[in-house]
Design a protein that fits this description.
The protein has 448 residues and is α/β, with parallel strands linked by helices. The protein has three domains: 27-231, Nucleotidyltransferase, domain 5 (2-Layer Sandwich), CATH 3.30.420.10; 241-333, HRDC domain (DNA polymerase, domain 1), CATH 1.10.150.80; 348-446, DNA polymerase, domain 1. The protein contains 18 helices and eight strands. The protein has helices spanning 43-55, 123-128, 147-154, 161-169, 189-198, 202-215, 219-231, 254-274, 278-281, 284-293, 298-301, 315-327, 351-354, 356-376, 380-383, 386-394, 403-412, 417-446, and strands spanning 27-28, 39-40, 57-65, 78-84, 87-91, 114-116, 144-146, 171-172. The strands form two sheets. The chain has a six-stranded mixed β-sheet, with helices on both faces. It has a two-stranded parallel sheet with strand order 1-8. α17 (403-412) crosses α18 (417-446). The longest helix has 30 residues, at 417-446. It is flat, with a radius of gyration of 28 Å.
């Protein structure tokens, strides 16, 4: 019950602030230290930037801006680089499409370490313009340092760049332009300032995180993770990507699913040709509504929201042709309800029915990994990829695998050495215990 004070009565207990730290006052980071640099957008300016960067010292902070919500491609529309002694450079990769002189192993940069935040988001678009991070040398120099991944392994709860800079440096980064259309030319000055500030203190954050990781005995783990990110191939194309259409769960019949597929593929071709994000060409909801209502003419299709307004004149007949082709497919050509085909195990929610023993193995193994992650102050998904654990529990190499067999399976599934060394024994023990419990239950059942 909550007590309240009354005139003449006892005073309500007041909340105590003993032991509670007051909110930290953040210092806004508003301007780059050397001022806002001009955009590097000529071959001569790029050559001068390479010279200055090669004369700098220490790691190189790197970032890239895309136009994901506006363009079909994931190309970089601005590349930011900063190095101590050289300053910050804002490079236009549209005007300067070959940035191989800034590759990590290029002579000018001599294998200096790259520092990125959430590197996997930018490495593909950087590689498209010739910027590949350096390989890590045997002495540990060079390579990549991912401040987001490093913060996760160090035990930070909030690992976005803004919150992380606030926590470790007490600085407040400007917000608001990460989702802008970076294909805009010329880029507004406020956007350029935001972009420059994204690399302003990245190396300082890196240095603090490295100290934290070293003190916690996690620096080698982090370097293995960074190397894995750096060496990862581009993501494979999704199988049946049309199944990710928002609202697809409303579509049940195979014929209607065929319509979704046909419209999605037609839209994707237009979006690629026009370099527009697909949902700006045609909203997902329009695809779903068409599949559910199955209009019988182009005129009827135009009454569905999304097929009118600013849509180009030839688009509706094109989509109606796709709809017509889907309606004419043979039954054997129709997609089936359910998830896209996969080479992995079925969804976990189905395990209890399909293979109860596998479900019990997964529960036991998850508990073992979660306990280990808590003890090591690591996110569970960083200690071991959930997909690798699911695959192991669905199809273990032996009914009761030992640590060596578990280690071999996890290594083949892509787990890093540090992950295997930390988890193999605990997972093996959990699987053996699950197998023993299952055998005991079966014995009880047989004995009536």
């Amino acid at each position: 019950m909550t007590s309240s004070s009354t005139p003449g009565g006892p005073a309500s207990p007041q909340p105590t602030t003993e032991g509670v730290e007051p909110p930290r006052t953040l210092v806004p980071l508003l301007e780059p230290r050397e001022g806002l640099p001009p955009v590097t957008n000529t071959a001569e300016a790029l050559a001068a930037a390479v010279v200055k960067l090669s004369a700098g010292i220490g790691p190189i902070a790197v970032d890239a801006e895309r136009a994901s919500g506006y363009k079909y491609s994931q190309r970089a529309y601005l590349v930011q680089i900063r190095r101590q002694g050289a300053g910050t450079f804002l490079i236009d990769p549209i005007a300067c499409p070959d940035l191989s002189a800034l590759a990590g192993d290029a002579p000018a940069l001599a294998g200096a370490e790259w520092v990125l935040h959430a590197a996997s988001q930018d490495l593909v678009c950087l590689a498209e313009v010739g910027m590949i991070p350096p390989a890590r040398r045997p002495d540990g120099t060079g390579g990549l340092f991912d401040t987001e991944l490093g913060a996760r392994l160090a035990g930070h709860d909030r690992v976005g760049l803004g919150p992380l800079v606030a926590e470790v440096l007490g600085l407040e980064l400007e917000k608001g332009h990460s989702a802008s259309d970076w294909s805009t030319r010329p880029l507004p000055e406020a956007w350029l300032r935001y972009a420059a500030l994204d690399v302003e203190v990245l190396v300082e954050v890196r240095d603090i995180l490295e100290d934290e990781l070293r003190s916690a005995g996690k620096l080698d783990w982090a370097r293995q993770e960074f190397d894995a990110v750096s060496a990862a191939p581009p993501p494979r194309p999704r199988v049946e990507p049309w199944r990710r259409t928002s609202g697809l769960h409303k579509v049940r019949r195979p014929r209607q699913l065929a319509v979704v597929r046909a419209l999605w593929e037609s839209r994707d071709e237009l979006a690629r040709r026009r370099d527009m994000t697909p949902t700006r060409v045609l909203p997902d909801q329009a695809i779903i509504d068409t599949a559910l209502t199955l209009p019988t003419s182009a005129a009827q299709m135009r009454t569905i929201p999304g097929f009118s307004g600013r849509m180009r004149s030839g688009d509706v007949p094109r989509y109606f042709d796709a709809l017509t082709r889907a309606r004419q497919l043979k039954e054997t050509e129709l997609p089936r309800p359910g998830a896209a085909p996969s080479d992995g195990p079925p969804p976990v929610r189905a395990w209890a029915d399909k293979d109860p023993a596998a479900a019990q193995r997964l529960t036991a193994a998850r508990e073992a990994v979660a306990a280990l992650a808590e003890r090591l102050d690591l996110p569970v998904e960083n200690l071991l990829a959930p997909d690798a654990l699911r695959r192991l529990c669905w199809a273990p190499p032996m009914p009761e695998p030992d640590a060596g067999q578990v280690a071999a399976f996890l290594t083949a599934a892509g787990a890093r050495t540090w992950q295997v060394e930390l988890t193999a024994e605990a997972i093996g023990e959990a699987l053996r215990e699950a197998a023993a419990k299952a055998a005991a239950r079966e014995q009880v059942s047989e004995n009536g």
